[in-house]
Amino acid sequence: MQKIKRIFINIVIFVVTFLFMFTAGMIMISDASLHDVFTSSRISALKDRPENIKKDIFVDTTFLSATGGITTLTINVLKNLVHRHEDWRFIITEHEGQYQFKDFEKLSNVKIIKVSTCRSMPKIISLVEKLSSGIVRDKISQILLYGNIIFDDNVNLIWDPTGELCFIDSTIVPRVSTIHDLAWFEPNGSTFLFNFEKLKHLRWQTFEKTARVSKKIITVSNFSKKRIIEQFNLPEDRVQVIPIQLGKRVFAKYTEKEELDIMKKYNIQRQKYFIFCSTWWKNKNHKNLMLAFEKFIRDNPATKLKLLIVGQHDDFDNIDFWKTIKDETKKRMVIVGHVSDTELNIMLQNALAFIHPSIYEGFGIPLVEAMSSGIPVACSNVASLPEVVGDAAIKFTPYKVDEIASAMQKLADDENLRKLLIQKGYEQVKQYENSDAMIEQYEKVFEEYMK
Length: 451
What we know:
CATH architecture of the largest domain: 3-Layer(aba) Sandwich
Shape: globular
Strand content: 5-15%
Largest sheet: 7 strands, parallel
Number of helices: 17
Radius of gyration: 25 Å
Distance between the termini: 50 Å
CATH topology of the largest domain: Rossmann fold
CATH class of the largest domain: Alpha Beta
Helix content: 40-55%
Strand order of the largest sheet: 3-2-1-4-5-6-7
């Protein structure tokens, strides 16, 4: 039975391969190797390259979330490189319905390709990979997922900004991947993300393959570099640290009226709230933050301080710990979704302090934004966070509610401590404000592998 099944599947693979060769106009292959067949055709995505374009870089963004640090970094890097190199063309794939790169559409050296994928495709691709190998497998996988996007010798580089472009195993086109962290594979990883166990195995296969086929892996902290090298047994020179330097991106200008409107809209007052900015992923540790704030209120019944939580979140009915938080605590919390840079700037600059209780981070952009905004910071003492904040923050154990509450208490009571942390924060954040240096490092890596 197994033999018959394998024969049937091989026939299907052969038919798909034949159809591809037919549509590419490459049926006659008597004197050509499969390598030549699959790398010489010029399909529509590539054969319209303008004369001034010297290099084509393919960037897959279909795995980007709508918001978050990885999305912010990817857009920033691309925006800068697009304007620095008019002779480089960026072929960017993004899901239909996503518009992160809408501002890029009119640029002559950017080609946006909308992708519509089916949730069952990864399973089909996985089957193809098990039953075939090399160029045939890669091309069939690409056809199944992206239709007509084929990497031929017109493409000079693949940049995978999420580390999740798992189905491309090209030995023809060099690939550079950015892996921000390995939260999924930590010993207590089940505490990090919802539905973790269902996705862990697939994630492992994805990142392991990324590590294996990439010419260079870029990561965002020394902590993440160490973990990537250990996890995938890589030589140290394969992994390069390029810290996230976004300058003062968060400092969108605003008027006094806009500030007053935000204060009124969310019923908050200057210097009368703690703030935390993050998507509602399990590793961000919202539960212990709320429990700590609950304890803070219990210990300070007369306090007027609130807790402002900013970031994209799911329906609260799907968040298991939400029902355990007391109603009195919920009344003192202000929970908003994703906000504009202007709103975020207003919220940060008027907060009493920034509290970051995350269990795991590969970097921690919100910490940099908070220090740049001139507010004192308290954060977890794990993963990359101590590396990012140095001695410019109160540090606590994220698993201990009492320690988080104690940090809140110190920040609420001690004005001199707040001033000291603000000053140290300004000094610490200088190393993350040179966005040009970050772009130049990406530029250098890309140029090295496009030679």
